[in-house]
Amino acid sequence: MTATMSGPLVGRGFDRVDGRAKVTGAAHYTAEIPLPGVVHAVLVGARIGCGSVRSVDIRAALNAGALAVFTHENLPKVATIPPQFPSAYGGPAPGQTFFPMQDGEIHYYGQPIAVVLADTFEIAQHAAELVTADYKHKDPLIRLDDGRDARYQPEKIFCGLVPAVQTRGDFEAAARSAAHTFDATYHFAANHHNPIECSATAAVWDGDTVTIYDSTQGINATQATVAAYLGISPSHVRVVSHYVGGGFGAKAMMWPHVTLAPMIAREIGRPVKLVLDREQMFYGTGLREEQEQRVTLTCDADGGFTGLRHHKLSVTSPFDDWAELSLGVAGQAYAIPHYDGQYQLVSGNIMTPTFMRGPGEASGMVALECAIDELAEELGVDPMELRLRNHAAIDPESGHPWSSDGYVECVRTAAERFGWSAEQRAAGARRDGDWLIGWGMGTAGYPVYAPGQPQRAHARLLADGSLVVQAGTQDFGTGVATTMAQVAGDAMGLEFDSVRVDIGDSDYPNIAAAVGSMGAGMISAAVHTACGDLLAQVMELAIGDSASPLHGRIAAELEVHQGRLRVRANPAVGETYSALLTRHHLIDMEAIGAWNPPDQNTPFGKISFGAQFAEVAVDPDLGLVRVRRMVGTFAPGRVLNAKLARSQVLGGMNWGLSQALMEATLPDVRDGSWANASLLEYLLPVNADAPEVDISFVEVEDNVVNPLGVKGLGELGMIGAAAAVINAIHHATGVRVREIPVRIEHLLDFRST
């Protein structure tokens, strides 16, 4: 049954429903949940990057008050190590196909070698510092350059899902006949996530069932993964995660501590809480790998792109062929008929890399967008015009039309808001006192992913006319409960305040992990479907009720408005939900709706597009770079909440600034550690670094991706921002830096003329 539905709540900028709890301290994050009789666990990490443990001395720790210490000698064996699999597809999602403390081998610095337990966190922490180990040391390999000669090309990367070689056309032929060829290599430092909340897990057993409190981006992925490791049914694992203090990919996969907590809790018969400290976050939750990308771009005499060779070399762990998908959108965003994309790897002594905000595209689009700017300079063409001239009207990989586009509108809108013009930009470096001023741009693009299983939600209409929606998802800063209330309110014709949303519990209907910008699309689709099924039931009840003023009508004649079913052609005829349920002596009516994602072979290309512009000021004597303003316009399909969408993009754009100018994790080749594994030395932007930011959206209609046409936004705000900043630096100074992040040292030799 269908009916016209009132609204709209969707699109409006409602405040977050969890805002008050967070600012007043009422929100309990995982480490803050009170658990009677809890034992605190602290990890001890290896102090070498490669080798083995000869012995672990725990005597001082026990003398200092530790209740127990687990090492590879007494930790239970895991039942299985499930294959590494993105949680987005619904299966177990271990962070790496290796589980520590099963033997004495050390594969990377910081790998857990012991877990210390005590009645208080302070005692556990102190005792952990007293644990010592005797190692058999081997020289670690942690830098890309040190393993370059041993590079290899796997058959597939990214959990075995993506071929390492992807080609179309004949690039070599395109290169031979090209009027112009540009070839450059870009190097990217390793990066690490730094969410405000460090990762934490707590576990409580009740017989053969365990409740796990976890800071995770996917409660159902945690459930499936822990069950596989422990060898028990997922039905015996409940995962709760009401509040997550940021994830950005660090909490998308299930790292060893998530299983260690319930494993040890089962052994000692008491609840266990395990919290990583800030340094352990650098060794325990993945990273964006060090990488270099070689881009060769060819074009004809008119600047039309004819070929792209994009090769990536990066460092992975000794046990996983992982590389972020840097060549995806970069190989699709422009109409390039001949393409050669390849991934090569160096096996190093690091933990397996993982998702990080804008995974793949945040690096791949930097390399391509900087190369396009460099080619534009060689051709004497405005960089914006060159991009518009070559935008792909259809997906060049599949030949299919885009499910929706918006790229050209984004570029033109952002350029107008920024004040970009070819004449002004080409005039050479402008000055503001001693500062040199530069302008730059970059394209944003991110694939529209979909989970590989149905997504479900539960909708329950109460007799007072209010609605309760439940879904097995979690909020890690995106405001999902707020947008779910908007979607549900529109679907049921209710005001925003009449909808309550319950999330953060795996007992609720299954939702896949919110990674790859899938969260808004899949969750809104599940909620919309559940509410649609519920509304059909309610309308059927009214139509079949002889006492209802709607008796005998058909669904197509009806609409809902402010909790009242009514005849669309005669709004005075109708009744409230409350009156209908009360007359039938019903406490509630409910439905579980399941949204089936479209098949991956749907004949459409699916990418969210955008464009970013930046203005920088450079001090030519000191090499200082200040980003003064940024403009971004994006086409993410339907925007569910204008305020939250802007907040997501604002954070992403500032992260792009950080990627361009600050973030780098530096390896210590002596022991395989990270030399700056702290927030004191890992550079991040602060308020003083944040520029003026102008954000706008181009809403494009998309009838392919999901019922509401939501394409996703989380990653998109970061992509393109770093390239815009780097290109602006070149415009200001004439210096082209191909090592990211751009540092003061890169600009110290520059002097203005």
Automatic annotation (TrEMBL):
It holds the Pfam family MoCoBD_2. Gene3D superfamilies: Aldehyde oxidase/xanthine dehydrogenase, a/b hammerhead, Aldehyde oxidase/xanthine dehydrogenase, molybdopterin binding domain. Keywords: Molybdenum, Oxidoreductase. The keyword Oxidoreductase applies. Residues 24-139 form the Aldehyde oxidase/xanthine dehydrogenase a/b hammerhead domain. SUPFAM superfamilies: CO dehydrogenase molybdoprotein N-domain-like, Molybdenum cofactor-binding domain. This is Xanthine dehydrogenase family protein molybdopterin-binding subunit.
